[in-house]
Amino acid sequence: xxxxxxxxxxxxxxxxxxxxxxxxxxxxxxxxxxxxxxxxxxxxxxxxxxxxxxxxxxxxxxxxxxxxxxxxxxxxxxxxxxxxxxxxxxxxxxxxxxxxxxxxxxxxxxxxxxxxxxxxxxxxxxxxxxxxxxxxxxxxxxxxxxxxxxxxxxxxxxxxxxxxxxxxxxxxxxxxxxxxxxxxxxxxxxxxxxxxxxxxxxxxxxxxxxxxxxxxxxxxxxxxxxxxxxxxxxxxxxxxxxxxxxxxxxxxxxxxxxxxxxxxxxxxxxxxxxxxxxxxxxxxxxxxxxxxxxxxxxxxxxxxxxxxxxxxxxxxxxxxxxxxxxxxxxxxxxxxxxxxxxxxxxxxxxxxxxxxxxxxxxxxxxxxxxxxxxxxxxxxxxxxxxxxxxxxxxxxxxxxxxxxxxxxxxxxxxxxxxxxxxxxxxxxxxxxxxxxxxxxxxxxxxxxxxxxxxxxxxxxxxxxxxxxxxxxxxxxxxxxxxxxxxxxxxxxxxxxxxxxxxxxxxxxxxxxxxxxxxxxxxxxxxxxxxxxxxxxxxxxxxxxxxxxxxxx
Length: 552
Ligand code: NAD
Known about the structure:
With 552 residues, the chain is an alpha/beta fold. Among the domains are: 122 residues, no CATH class; 200 residues, Rossmann fold, CATH 3.40.50.10730. 43% of the residues lie in helices and 14% in strands. It contains 19 helices and 17 strands. The strands form three sheets. Strands 3, 4, 5, 12, 13, 14, 15, 16 and 17 form a nine-stranded mixed sheet that branches. A six-stranded parallel sheet has the order 8-9-7-6-10-11, with helices on both faces. The protein has a two-stranded antiparallel ribbon with strand order 1-2. Strand 6, helix 6 and strand 7 form a beta-alpha-beta unit. It is globular, with a radius of gyration of 22 Å. Bound molecules: nicotinamide-adenine-dinucleotide. The site of nicotinamide-adenine-dinucleotide (NAD) has 34 residues, from helix 5 and strand 7.
């Protein structure tokens, strides 16, 4: 019945409630999360099946999507579905504790791993770009990135401003799927915020979801608002429509130097993402179609100019960092030879957390009932009374975050904590304290799941930045451990040729089977981060490894 209704009227919204459409929760869960990824409140462009991050898709095309849904509805506990770059290509014989879906997205043999080759394959209908959590069906809207961004801004405040961002101005570009988390993260951390995006619709979306406070098309008005708010120590967020490079140029001219400067435009994709400063949105769209080579040239030059202004801001005192979009590399290619003078956010602020196996643990309530998330929030607050930082986050999140699609939560947890949380959630499902099963997953941006030399593995202590054996081992561990679906992608975050990464989602349905899978997967997954950083020689990781008997 579900498939008939869906085929007549494709609607991207996860089914909710405690009744199954598929044969078991093991397949109902990926079905709901796939459709949730495309929910109008979650996805940036559901019509194109684009979830976030430039062109990150959930499925290759509408036919492939329909077929995935059909197969998920058919699948039993002794088979697993294979998905190749967003298209279902076969079923293999497995067993009840194996992953139900095995996903590989956007992978290319290294010599061919560039946007040009990928685009050719894409236009021939042979591939799609999976980003990180788009093609692996665990994107949860802007909240997903919100806590990571909040952690980063707080860590930046602690490192440079004695832990206090009041009276501090943070400026950035890009308010899209991921970048849209910046305004709320900044104000939660106490700063005054100015975000610039060339596309007014993107800013409007952040207003609708309460991630940003005010919006204007007028530079002078935005400047007046932020300077007033900064002087009064108000944590207010302003969205300004415009090109980020042009706005930085004006701010420099007016000697408005933010304390913190970063960027989350979709710079990882110089053709379908970044908009050159001398084109309107409409002109950009047309030029992409008519002359992609010229577009790329303009885009690289524009990024070089943009980074040039960032370097000048840095010289004048802004704490400046790259926020994982590969802006420096493309600016370098566009002619800014000093582009790498500022560092990425991981070596600056996040790596110490990775050494403790900490990363973006997230979960979604398949019931669709927000109350289920509040029950899990409460359970975590009771289970980790010593973790004041996490408790502050959960309380703020409950108050300030509007859910998008299925209710969900993110909260960075480390070695030991993830397994403990997973087992608590399993008890909540078993005892009926939540109304339906939960899924637990994470971003591919995690401690032991990604090789990305301009982002997660930039500047590794032993020089092993580009070694991608680690995400492959992560994939294998999570497959062997019994995650409910696993994925291996290429090019997430920083684009084709620059990263390889693995994902996992595990079902929490209150069964003994789930308990066994949780004990394995939620132990092994953060342990991979500890192994990776122990091997690279980080003291903090060696300490965590010793505490959890992980050193061999
Ligand atoms: P997105 O495509 O949804 O949004 C990008 C936004 O940038 C769009 O709204 C677009 O209008 C805007 N933009 C493009 N060129 C511009 C310009 N010249 N001036 C002003 N605005 C411009 O992408 P997203 O999901 O928000 O991701 C942003 C970037 O961050 C991507 O490169 C992504 O790979 C990267 N990323 C970072 C992290 C992280 O943890 N730091 C995680 C995931 C993705």
